[in-house]
């Protein structure tokens, strides 16, 4: 019974990967934060294999949600990093790659087994993937978000990134998607990443998005390879716009917490219920006032000490 349920859910996840949860565990946000192609992961049918042997649609282990529930995750994208350069990884991670360590998301650091390897970008539909050694890892590195994040800060951030990448494609993770621009406010594109992380967090967690909209627009206009910029402009025709006037066509539309309208709905329903309760309470009090009023008239000046009057009060 539970087994067939599992199979059904698995089929559902395979057929409607985005419907179940829009997702993408990406490992190479910008530059140096990849995983080694040789890192071992467990695949549902292929068993334990190396990252470089994975294909899109493979199912690997990962975790989802506030409770970090272990689950199977669909590989949305897996690419070797451009060029044949070898990089030092530690237990399969570049030193600045962010992994999950107890309740925090932080750089793996220079520990464990150092090897020179080809780097891969890997994206799944979970909040984090888990390798064969049981280490959970994110798709981002300190090149993007420099500080340690709590899991609860990280979740809305990664969910927003997934909504964007599943709309536009995964080129945000390719370092060749961006270039340095001498005439830009910030000539080196990598120097804009920390600002973008800060504003992305502010937008995805608190719904304050105008600065985020502006900084992404600047980044896209001044640093993004034209072949990808075309896609972004097409998907977000109003990028850089005033998001307090209208979110339509902005990147904020995807990043801002989706429950804003739900919150309004809850407030509306909540106030309706409160109004009904107030009316009911008022009707009750009026009725009670009338009854006790009558009681006073019929029973004399001080009925409250009388046990029958008390019983009547309770009943009405
Ligand atoms: C470089 O940045 C400037 C803004 O300062 C922008 O107008 C220009 O298009 C950018 N260069 C390229 C090649 O995109």
Short description, anyone?
Residues 296-316 are annotated as: Disordered. This protein is an alpha+beta fold.
Number of helices: 9
Average pLDDT reading: 83
The radius of gyration is 28 Å
Protein structure class: alpha+beta
H/E element order: HHEEEEEEEEEEEEEHHHHHHH
What form results from the Cα inertia axes? globular
How many strands in all?
Answer: 13
What does this structure look like?
The chain crosses the membrane at residues 264-286. Residues 1-22 form the signal peptide. Residues 296-316 are annotated as: Disordered. This protein has 316 residues and is of the alpha+beta class. It has helices at 2-15, 17-20, 151-168, 193-206, 210-223, 226-235, 252-255, 260-299, 307-315, and strands spanning 35-36, 40-43, 47-50, 59-64, 69-80, 87-90, 97-101, 104-107, 114-117, 119-124, 128-130, 136-141, 149-150. A hairpin with a 5-residue loop joins strand 11 and strand 12 (136-141). It is globular and about 90 Å long. The relative contact order is 0.11. The model is unreliable at 9-31 and 309-316 (pLDDT under 50). 2-acetamido-2-deoxy-beta-D-glucopyranose binds at residues 181, 183-184, 222.
Layout: helices, strands, pairs:
Layout: H1 2-15, H2 17-20, E1 35-36, E2 40-43, E3 47-50, E4 59-64, E5 69-80, E6 87-90, E7 97-101, E8 104-107, E9 114-117, E10 119-124, E11 128-130, E12 136-141, E13 149-150, H3 151-168, H4 193-206, H5 210-223, H6 226-235, H7 252-255, H8 260-299, H9 307-315
Antiparallel strand pairs: 1-10, 2-3, 4-5, 4-11, 5-10, 6-9, 7-8, 7-12, 8-13, 11-12
Helix pairs in contact: 3-4, 4-5
């Amino acid at each position: 019974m539970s087994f067939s349920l599992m199979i059904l859910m698995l089929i559902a996840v395979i057929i409607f990967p985005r419907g179940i949860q829009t997702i993408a565990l990406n490992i190479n946000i910008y530059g140096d934060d990849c995983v080694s192609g040789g890192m071992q992961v467990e695949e549902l049918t292929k068993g334990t294999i190396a990252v470089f042997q994975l294909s899109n649609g493979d199912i690997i282990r990962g975790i989802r949600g506030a409770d970090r529930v272990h689950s199977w995750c669909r590989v949305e994208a897996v690419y070797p990093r451009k060029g044949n350069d070898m990089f030092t990884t530690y237990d399969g991670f570049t030193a600045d790659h962010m992994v999950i360590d107890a309740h925090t998301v932080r750089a793996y650091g220079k520990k464990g087994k150092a090897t020179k390897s080809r780097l891969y970008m890997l994206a799944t539909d979970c909040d984090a993937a888990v390798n064969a050694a049981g280490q959970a890892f994110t798709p981002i590195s300190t090149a993007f978000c420099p500080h340690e994040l709590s899991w609860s800060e990280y979740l809305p951030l990664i969910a927003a990134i997934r909504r964007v990448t599943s709309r536009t494609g995964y080129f945000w993770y390719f370092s060749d998607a961006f270039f340095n621009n001498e005439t830009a406010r910030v000539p080196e594109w990598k120097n804009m990443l920390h600002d973008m992380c800060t504003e992305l967090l502010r937008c995805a967690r608190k719904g304050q998005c105008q600065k985020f909209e502006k900084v992404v627009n600047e980044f896209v206009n001044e640093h993004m390879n034209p072949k990808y910029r075309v896609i972004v402009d097409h998907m977000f025709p109003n990028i850089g716009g005033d998001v307090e006037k209208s979110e339509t066509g902005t990147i904020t539309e995807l990043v801002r917490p989706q429950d804003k309208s739900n919150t309004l709905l809850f407030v509306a329903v909540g106030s309706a219920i409160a109004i009904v309760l107030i009316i009911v309470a008022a009707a009750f009090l009026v009725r009670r006032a009338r009854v006790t009023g009558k009681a006073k008239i019929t029973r004399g000046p001080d009925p409250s000490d009388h046990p029958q009057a008390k019983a009547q009060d309770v009943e009405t």
